[in-house]
Amino acid sequence: METVRVGLGERAYSIAIGAGVLDDASLVAPQVSGRRVALITNETVAPLLHARFARTLANAGGETASLILPDGEETKNWHTLQRIIDWMLGERFGRDVTVAALGGGVIGDLAGFAAAVYQRGVRYVQVPTTLLAQVDSSVGGKTGINHPLGKNLVGAFHQPGLVIADIAVLDSLPDRELRAGVAEVVKYGFALDGELVAWLESNIDRLIARDRDALIHAVRRCCELKAGVVAADERESGVRALLNFGHTFGHALEAAQGYGIWLHGEAVAAGMVMAADLSVKLGLLDRQALQRLRALLIRTGLPVSNPGIAMDRLIALMRGDKKVEGGRLRLVLLRSVGGAEVRADVSETRIAESIRSCTS
Amino acid sequence: METVRVGLGERAYSIAIGAGVLDDASLVAPQVSGRRVALITNETVAPLLHARFARTLANAGGETASLILPDGEETKNWHTLQRIIDWMLGERFGRDVTVAALGGGVIGDLAGFAAAVYQRGVRYVQVPTTLLAQVDSSVGGKTGINHPLGKNLVGAFHQPGLVIADIAVLDSLPDRELRAGVAEVVKYGFALDGELVAWLESNIDRLIARDRDALIHAVRRCCELKAGVVAADERESGVRALLNFGHTFGHALEAAQGYGIWLHGEAVAAGMVMAADLSVKLGLLDRQALQRLRALLIRTGLPVSNPGIAMDRLIALMRGDKKVEGGRLRLVLLRSVGGAEVRADVSETRIAESIRSCTS
Predict the structure, then answer these.
(1) What is the DSSP letter of B289?
(2) Residue B129 has what DSSP assignment?
(3) Does residue A197 surpass a pLDDT of 90?
(4) ipTM exceeding 0.85?
(5) Phi, psi of A272 (to 5 degrees)
(6) Residues B75 and B127 in one domain
(7) Which of A172, A207, A237 is the C-terminal boundary of a domain?
(8) What's the pLDDT score for residue A325?
(9) What is the pTM of this model?
(10) Deepest of A35, A105, B121, B147, by most Cβ within 10 A of its Cβ?
């Protein structure tokens, strides 16, 4: 087992990474021993992992009640949040409850947000069961729900007490979801770490084949990168914004199609290409870096272009995204492979040009 | 103008107390200058104070849009929270918006909770316009909404950047609301500060007559007491719980009658008598202290008994309150005038006896 520590003072926590860590009762005991546990999962994950993790919680001394939600990004809304809160209150959980989120990013965001606001905040543990959630949405305390006007527009920063990233559970992940998770790994590389990009160029086939050592390397490296960024900037006022590389374009692509058509990672893949293309057009980045990004995403089997959404609609959605300050779009652009920066001075004309270039 | 500083490290803020501070643009400028402001108020307060405070915000360099909500505790729910969020997203406020809450505790709790979760948290300023809100709900960062199963069961800790407590606006407060606010002043005295109780016994008539010096003294002393407690215990794991003196009984009285029948302060008044009666029955407190509490509340014109709610219903509601840990009710009891303590070892039989004694 490998451990990545997220250093946030009194809110510091650990990410345990390895094959089979889901079964390790000693790991989760400090979070649940002698407490009631609100275990929240979904209909897809429950048949595979619910009984197994519930046993781990029992072995750790927790008394578990479970809520099994429908699966899907479209459930990440007010209605489901209220359903979770109603269930928790109906179960009469006190402030000493531990919320455990067993699932992908949607379950983590929903259960984490519920934990953030239930009786003004209770403890929670995240057990991410997708590659995307393991490398991204389980790290850094972002929780929230979507709104018809955009993704993650309502939420809270609420740090978990522990994250359990079991590589072995990815064996049952659909291939398409695994590839979407790799998009975020690629994002970490291009935004922050040129060495990770080089490693991916050599190891992408092993990663897609679910080689455990490759998965552990990728998850650990991404968590280390994110932990470093989050420790420096918990509330996303500065460097943390770099993790949004590809996301302003990506969120707009997701919203325009309706959530659930493209996976988040697929939208981020195409969004990264748009942001890199824009970086090239602005003279920030050399064209070869853009080609390396496209090549890596194509080898991973990910989309690299706008599937035909009208430009005006995409730009309007981008303006509705959270990354607007003082009326100007803030975009994460690339200066090099592994070197992202935030720019708020890009005209909509230039953005439109890149959307046009990247429309298939 | 007097200032009380709430020392919470990077979340520290000031409470400005005085007559006319609402008009002081220099006070609010650091919070709003060059920013958009989401001014949230209600239909009762708006005709009296909206135009005036909007002018202050404009003079301070803020660009204000306003939302005027219906008045009343029954609006403190999911529906109104969603309405605020929908309005804010519709106005396209960015993360740099400042939410300004102009109103009593309900507006403060709603607008504060919206500020806590809008795009995962934005800045906010509270302008409490009731005595209750000035001495209590505007200090300490508690925000939230009610649920059919109990009060304030969903919410967040979110500290304001500034609190403006203008004593002069209390001139237009209905008499009943003023008296309900005094209940919380009495609470601070009996829970934490025997000297404040003695001061109240000498000055209660001046306070009810809205003598400005008396109001400033009461508001400042309560804010100082609360600031001290909150600085020591932001998340209510310890000493902050003492501020709930009278509230576990009080919340149950409110919930049983339906919110809006009794004012919060009225329910807390009767709840304090029940908690003090229980303290006497348990041999913690001398009977004379209970008599002083009852006398002070009666002089203030506040209820001092259960208006006939069935005992089983009250106890069930108390168990549904947040202050349950490990299955036992946690109650704030008195050992002396100004000396409260938390007890989790009181049997429901003893609680029932006190409810019976205090039923009129």
Answers:
(1) H
(2) -
(3) yes
(4) yes
(5) -65, -40
(6) yes
(7) A172
(8) 61
(9) 0.89
(10) A105
For A140, counting Cβ atoms within 10 Å of its Cβ (0-12 exposed, 13-18 middle, 19+ buried), the class is buried
Domain of A136 in residue numbering reads as 2-172
Q: Specify the CATH number for the domain of residue A353.
A: 1.20.1090.10
3-state secondary structure of A169: helix
Residues A161 and A261 in one domain: no
Tokens, residue A188: 């970490």
Residue B88 Cα, gap to closest chain A Cα (Å): 11
Is B322–A150 a contact, with Cβ atoms under 8 angstroms apart? no
Among A207-211, B247-251, B311-315, B317-321, the minimum mean pLDDT is found in B317-321
Split into its structural domains, chain A has a count of 2
Residues of A catalogued as catalytic: 120, 142, 184, 226, 236, 240, 244, 247, 251, 264
For A81-124, write each residue's pLDDT tens digit: 999 999 999 999 999 999 999 999 999 999 999 999 999 999 99
CA angle A107/A113/A118 to nearest 5° reads 120
Question: Nearest CB to B142: which of A86, A120, A149?
Answer: A120
Indicate whether A101 and A46 sit together in one domain.
Answer: yes
- Give the tens place of pLDDT for each residue, A219-253: 999 999 999 998 887 776 678 889 999 999 998 99
User: Is residue B220 domain-shared with residue B324, that is, in the same domain?
Assistant: yes
Residues A162 and A124 in one domain: yes
- Tokens 């989760």 label which residue? A28
User: Is B288 in the same domain as B179?
Assistant: yes
The per-residue pLDDT for B215 is: 97
